[in-house]
Write a structure and sequence with these properties.
Number of domains of chain A: 2
CATH superfamily of the largest domain in chain A: S-adenosyl-l-methionine hydroxide adenosyltransferase, N-terminal
CATH topology of the largest domain in chain A: Rossmann fold
Largest sheet of chain A: 8 strands, antiparallel
Number of strands of chain A: 14
CATH architecture of the largest domain in chain A: 3-Layer(aba) Sandwich
Shape of chain A: elongated
Oligomer: homotrimer
Largest interface: A-B, 39 and 33 residues
Chain lengths: 264, 264, 264
């Protein structure tokens, strides 16, 4: 049973996602295709990278993850096959795999050059269909990564989960994602914050607002829809939330907003 | 072949739905996962309950239905496993299963307490991933409901499909759902209305408007986009519709709007 | 392994798509169901026809394609089974299969009248569930098209991919689709344009604007978000695009907009 997950910014209203499913099923009718999302904001590589990092660990080892957020399609940006953490990843070399590389320093990255695995007729605008999908199908049939092309040592990589620590101990970070419920996900990894904050007080500053209420579940804020709080989020990062309302809208912030965290 | 359907308010743009699929496929790679919808309006338990009631009878007996609309996640609301009508249902105890209970008075409901079936590391904000998905996977592998926990005799239950009958015979109900096309679904079950209205005239009052045109298919109203009509809907309830336009927008109503039905 | 793809205008927030999946899995639990899209604009038959034409060739021969954009549901419009190009298509007789008929003049079309394959209880508003889905399930189990009903020789057919050529050689066409990225897909098939434009200059007029920059991939326009260009699109038609922005919004046009193409 070969599992292929699919993350794209194709939207759900077009033929794009359906077409890449057809290509994969034409080459491996037994592949199990799993839609993750097709509504990464168009061309938003960071949102794609965040999403990929959040779901893939929950799939079985050996799963293949197809990720297409690809504003540089048709240019000389490299198509990649990545082996990391026991999983396989296929997509463009534009930073999409940044969190994968953070998690597994031993990741092996290859430039997919072997056109024998591509569709015979290739467009310059839809490599998801013409290159990435057939490469995933080949991987799902057992073709080894070595077959696709040479090792890449300098894949594009964003450091957006990196946190800077100021001399006074303030951690300088940012909101890296706003989810469907309006929760604002920061780049402060809860594993690290928890250690440093044991028995002390966390306070997070976003614009002029200081938030120092730390909850463990949304229900603790029940009935207080106008009070922001911090919460360890399910993707492993500290989040800013409001009870049953959108933190992003309440605070008027979006991904990219700088924030500061003090532990006292 | 174990079928697991998935209904959530997670939205389609995040990692949430993909993650619960990964959890289930990690534990049962042969499970057949079926997306029903991930765009129940956030925290709208009634919309989730209506949707669940509308689709599940069309699945084969033995199917497992995962329903997560869960504003109380992390609080003491109980996670449930429900056996009803030959199907299995998994989700929070907050009214989501109201229509299931209406349909099968012999439904058996269990409080899912046996953490041996949960993910080892659990968050307080994502029980869909950490509790409900692995419980579904276990059910799909043949674990019997008894294993998950004790019987619950007082599950949360909304009476939103109940219709009140006034002394003069007027039925007092409400719009319980607005669908993608803007059709307004009432809580008047067509099976019951049909009996009472044979050879008589139905008239439905919504706000100041009285609608007494009853059609059997949309096409009968062809070319009359400004005339409301009643129609027995595909979910088994009487609906208010306009031809090729949104009844909800035309009438400026939403779920919850009270309505009155007269049979004369 | 029987593959059934699904294209509808049902939206993703309702029980409609889930219900037809349940009907098909109830009758053939081994069918592989593939969501293409459920967000064809409501009642937009042309958008459905375009989408169907764009993805089906990428599926394996023998695939079954269920297409439901059906404003005439319940009226006397005929339900069809179409055999064309090695694929099977199921849906209403309203023009949805126009491009399929363009591609395969030998297409065999049948009026689905044999109610033995329908759901026993049928509504007048949801033939996707009651007629089309069980017919697809029967086809996936090997029932031959002949079983469903008599040949139709006059299916509804739109000529929307036809291009008119004026006496001076100007080609008169239209925008037939706007995709998720805002690219405007014209009805000028690139195969035909390429021949005629070899060594000559293409210029496309939309409203008052003349566009004569022809690129082969989006990246060539990198950094020039305000300059429209033409590009051979992945569906096989000439497209109007802007780099990282919506051509439809920039030009304020929608599907149906007339355009003129000159080759000099």
């Amino acid at each position: 049973m070969a599992i292929i997950t699919i993350v794209t910014d194709f939207g759900t209203e077009d033929y794009f996602a359906g077409t890449i499913k057809g290509v994969m099923l034409s080459r491996n009718p037994r592949a199990v295709l799993v839609d993750i999302t097709h509504t990464i904001p168009p061309h938003d590589i960071l949102a794609g990278a965040f999403t990929l990092g959040a779901f893939y660990p929950y799939f079985p080892p050996g799963s293949i993850h197809l990720a297409v957020v690809d504003p540089g399609v048709g240019s000389d940006r490299r198509p990649l096959v990545v082996e990391a953490g026991g999983h396989l990843f296929v997509g463009p070399d534009n930073g999409l795999f940044s969190i994968i590389f953070d998690r597994d320093p031993a990741a092996r990255v290859r430039h997919t050059t072997n056109s024998e695995y591509f569709l015979p007729a290739r467009s310059s605008t839809f490599h998801g269909r013409d290159i990435f999908a057939p490469v995933c199908a080949a991987l799902s049939l057992g073709v080894v990564p070595e077959r696709f092309g040479p090792i890449v040592t300098d894949p594009v990589r964003f450091e957006f989960t990196q946190v800077e620590v100021a001399p006074d101990g303030t951690m300088l970070g940012s909101i890296i994602h706003v989810d469907h419920f309006g929760n604002c996900i920061t780049n402060f990894a809860w594993d690290q914050i928890r250690e440093r904050s044991r028995g002390r007080t966390l306070s997070l500053q976003v614009r002029e607002l200081v938030i120092d209420r730390l909850l463990t579940h949304y229900g603790e804020a029940s009935g207080q829809p106008l009070e922001p709080f911090l919460i360890p989020g399910s993707a492993g990062f500290l989040e800013i939330s409001f009870w049953c309302s959108s933190a992003a809208r309440q605070l008027n912030v979006a991904a990219g907003e700088p924030i500061r965290l003090l532990v006292r």
